[in-house]
Amino acid sequence: MQENTKSSFIGLVPLLIFILFYLGTGIFLQMNNTPMAFYQLPSPVAVTLGIIAAFILFKGTIQEKCTTFLEGCGHQDIITMCVIYLLAGAFASTAKNMGGVDSTVNLALNYIPVQFLAPGLFIVAGFISTATGTSVGAIVSIAPIAVGLADKSGVSLPLILAAVMGGSMFGDNLSVISDTTIAATRTQGVDMRDKFKVNLYIAIPAAVITIILLLIFGAPETITNLGSLEFSFIKVIPYIAVLIMAISGMNVFMVLTLGILIAGIIGLAYGNFTLLTFAKGVNSGFENMNEIFLLSLLSGGLGTMTAKAGGIQWIINKIQKIIVGKKTAKLGIGLLVSLTDIAVANNTVAIIINGSIAKKISHKYNVDPRESAALLDIFSCVFQGMIPYGAQMLILLNFAADKVSPMTLIPLLWYQILLLVFTLIFIKFDLTEKIKRI
User: Is residue 3 part of a domain?
Assistant: First the structure.
């Protein structure tokens, strides 16, 4: 990505308008005890206010601004995510309509004690996202089942969702085939295995403590014997197939498309729907993802306008001024990628934008490039897994059918919080040299 040297606080203003208006409205309504406060203002409307502000405040002709905005909307990462949303919605709808969710939930509850559901989901999500390199893929695969498990087991739904999110971000951060890992290692000029080693020493303690916390707090207040629950193993097959295909490294579009077809064939064979109702179910799944689709498309355009107007570079310039030594250089790298991720809501893009800057800072202040690569990946994943308008949060909460708000979920994202804490400890005590000797 070509560096933009233009720096302007005005470039940030439209983005701040979107974030403050969206979060501010939700917080205000929450304080006034409005049910589902953060869902009262449609997020695409909030981001549209930021876009209007960008067209008013930024220099250039209307045509130039439109071109920049549409370039952002049409960026490959944005379009890829939007298509995944649609396919994920269609798969979830089809699998549910043919009884797949109920069968999978009942199967799990027959063999897994309810007190182990939350840590179990964290581990499974971590395994899938590590194997596939995508947190979104793990969330799409597990979230519908997780919601059903919470409903039937009595385990807290927000805690179950937080476990899925934490495990998904664990794998996203560590996987050697993750786009964040690839971006971080390439921009810093290090091997993936070297970055993985540094990263592992920070992530494992955070994951272990998270699992312990989920074991302690993840059991329902009253453990009820649910008895033997009926299920059809055939109807579990679509989920198993999706997991196996995802872990095998198959393209995510193919995984979800084949998942829809497998669920559809089983549903037709069992008489759960006809060809017409199958088609309507797929379309219903598309419609369920409309808000996420629009928000991602519009925020992609706003993010590109913000970057071109110098908003991201303004953040970079300000943070570079506070760097005075090795430790502050590491913190500066973390701040840069964190704030950029909050601005563009895409951790891979945040790493790419800051990669060359981080490499220069590392060279100037003698920061091990393996460490700078790990820091870029960790900080971006921490915040990507917490921002309310990020793809991961949007997809996860969409499967919960608006039963959980982002502000309820964020305090329970123990893995992301602990990962940040252990990273700061890592920086404070300069543990890179000790890792080199292990």
Answer: no
